[in-house]
Amino acid sequence: MKKLLLLSLIACSGALVARAAPSESDRPEYISRVESCEAILQEFMASPATAIPAQVLQSAHALVIVNQFKAGFFLGIKDGYGVILVKRPDGRWSLPVLVSAGEISLGFQVGANSVETVMVITDDQTPRKLFSQRFNVGVDAKAVAGPKAAEVEKNNREIITAPVLVYTKAAGLYAGATVKAGWLQRNDAINFVLYKTSYTMPELLYSNWVNPIPEVVPLMSYVQRIAP
Fold first, then answer.
1. If you ran DSSP here, which 8-state letter would residue 87 be given?
2. What is the SS3 string spanning 164-206?
3. For residue 211, what are the contacts with CB-CB under 8 A and spacing of at least 6?
């Protein structure tokens, strides 16, 4: 928990200042974003109250891990970042690609400083919507609250075939309830810096032309282990 809080504070502090063009000096911040998303996913999976069931992970074509936070008192969740990984046809998971995120409101958020969310995408078309537009979760693709491992076993087949299954630590969300979970947007500029490449989001996700940097390997390995 302490590691996650520290990593989140490092990443958030950089995101709240006026944005300039990303540069090599920003690379440690982008690495910390990937690491904090890994910590978020591990914390979700460590608790039966928030863990994503194996049957849901087996249906995943992509995973999005998002950390969003308050820009000011009473302003709600206004800014944030995340990563997206896609499962390639050979069964291997892609590089984690950084995305921008914001304007989320999920359940009961009074007093929350941040909202941590994991989205399981169950088709191949939905991730590609990020290529050309800001993707509004729950608007551009149906999104529902996903069933959790701690819930009583029941037939969740109808739920887990929704394009986007949303997992969050917010109270007030019930499995199958329709949700709107803010927006996601590609940000090639920060990935150019992170991976030291000129390849863009589609190439980073769906090709093998860019080798993973050491800092993203733990997240890739963890996702491969829980969603083979």
1. B
2. EEEEECCECCCCCCECCCCEEEECHHHHHHHHCCCCCHHHHHH
3. none
Cα–Cα distance list, 166 to 67, 193, 196 (Å)? 13, 29, 31
Domain that holds residue 95: 2-226
> How far separated are the first and last CA of the chain, in Å rounded?
26
pTM for the whole thing? 0.85
Residue 176 to residues 2, 27, 179: CA-CA distances in angstroms? Answer: 32, 38, 9
Q: Tens digit of pLDDT for each residue in 128-184?
A: 999 988 999 989 999 999 988 766 555 566 788 899 999 988 766 778 888 887 899
How far apart, in whole angstroms, are the C-alpha atoms of residue 226 and residue 228? 6
pLDDT in tens, 42-92: 999 999 889 999 999 999 999 999 998 765 544 455 679 999 999 999 999
Q: Considering its fold, how many domains does the chain have in total?
A: 1
Closest CA to 32 of 115, 112, 96, 93: 96
Contact indicator for 92, 224 with CB cutoff of 8 Å? yes
Residue bearing the bigger pLDDT, 5 or 66? 66
Angle at 84 between CA 79 and CA 89, to 5 degrees: 165
How far apart CA 140 and CA 44 sit, in angstroms, is 26
Per DSSP, which regions of the chain are E strands?
Answer: 62-70, 77-86, 97-102, 114-121, 135-136, 143-145, 164-168, 183-186
Give every strand in the sheet of 183-186, ordered side by side. 135-136, 183-186, 97-102, 77-86, 62-70, 114-121, 164-168, 143-145
